[in-house]
Amino acid sequence: MLPIRPRLAVIAAGVLLVSGCASLGSDPDDTAPGTSSNASSSPSETSGPAATETPSEPEEDPETPSSWGPTLGEIEEAAELVEGWTPEQLAGQVIVGRFHGTDPEEPARMVRELHLAGVSVTTDNIVDAGQVRAMTAAISEAAARDGRDFPPVIGVDQEGGYVSHLRGVATEFPHFQSAGLAIAADPRLGRRVTRAAALTTGLELRGLGFTWVFAPVADVTIGAADPTIGARSPSDDPGVAAQAIGAAIKGYDDAGIVSTVKHFPGHGTATSDSHDTLPVVDSTLAEIEAHDLPPFESAIAHQAPAVMLSHLDLTAIAPDVPASMAPEVYALLRDDLGFEGVTITDSLGMGAVGGRPTPALQALRAGADLLLMPVDTAATHRIVVDAMGSGDISRERVEEAAARVVALQMWQARIAAERPVPGDVVARAQAASGDLLSAAY
């Protein structure tokens, strides 16, 4: 088993070759722009001050895409934008709130008054397709009235199988386990139908007004001893799971929706349910690298825009602290695996983090960019505002988080505008669901 950094270098090199990015101009042995590789550097051709001048660095093209989606220009624009925001605006932009009931005005009011990045929609907020469209439209309008010219985060758990909060409204897809089974049976066909399933899921969600999907699940299950993930996992084989994740991310990207790889660094070995309690995972770091990380490495290599952090007690990395609140886990994701996109916590209303003082603030300090579904959205907003005022958290940390979210939403708006939702999206989704099921079984 290769150490993390060399192993990632191999993956990154493979992505460059596949994508055709390994052009002559990207070769580190190439000379700087404006020079020739066989140019002479003899004293007869260089004299005076020019011989000692240091070549200026080439300016970065703002249209260059980042490793996670947004262009360098969008990232810079987002950073400049949030610099001028009030503490209340900044605090809102790092929160994805929860709301109760089915009245579209309730989430719209929260987004407008608390400047929220957005909201997460659950089964309890759903009536039918018309109500869903009215709700997502109201949320988008509220963000626009708050002065934002980029879309809000409107997210939903729509993994396929039993974790599908739009059941009865959107097309039903099989468990994500089906992707792994299809790939194990025929890798090429399996990746194709997995990507098509993600593409049509994303397009259908966009047609309903969503901008985010809290999927795909990258956890590698251990089977019957895993009570939480199970068939939500693509496979008990890390290599198969890695292929499924790569294919799904490309499909969601093609659809112009933000995908969320979860639950870092892997929930599949936990033998208790984080919805109820804080699971203790005693895997060694080497075991985590071998069993749990390959799908996340694949996600990063395929330009995943967002990663969700789990609520797990990882004794080998950060004992007694939920992973979502542990700086060491964010360092593993960013420094060792090289992820540069948006980090989001799992729901802060889960039992694993219940009873902890200011869990949202702990997560934000540790490295979270988005705080998902705190128990009390308004109270959490006030806690973050007050913490910036008192110095309990730096404004710079909150600006960093908010800017990443804004840049990603700029990317989502741009890609969605380029790829309109087809009129027959439901028929396409139904066909893709059937193809995935057929390839798996």
Looking at this protein, list some descriptive labels.
TIM Barrel; 441 residues; EC 3.2.1.52; 3-stranded parallel β-sheet; NagZ_Beta-hexosaminidase; Glyco_hydro_3_N; 13 strands; hydrolase; glycosidase
Could you state the CATH homologous superfamily? Glycoside hydrolase, family 3, N-terminal domain
Strand content range: 5-15%
Main pleated sheet: 4 strands, parallel
CATH topology term: TIM Barrel
Shape: globular
Q: How many separate domains make up the residues?
A: 1
GO molecular function, one term: hydrolase activity, acting on glycosyl bonds
Protein name: beta-N-acetylhexosaminidase
Catalytic activity: Hydrolysis of terminal non-reducing N-acetyl-D-hexosamine residues in N-acetyl-beta-D-hexosaminides
Organism: Nocardioides astragali
Q: Can you give a write-up of this model?
A:
The protein has 441 residues and is of the alpha/beta class. The protein has one domain: TIM Barrel (Alpha-Beta Barrel). It is built from 15 helices and 13 strands. Strand 2, helix 5 and strand 3 form a beta-alpha-beta unit. The protein is globular and about 55 Å long. The chain starts with a helix and ends with a helix. The N terminus is likely disordered. It catalyses: Hydrolysis of terminal non-reducing N-acetyl-D-hexosamine residues in N-acetyl-beta-D-hexosaminides. Keywords: Glycosidase, Hydrolase, Signal. It is an enzyme of class 3 (hydrolase).
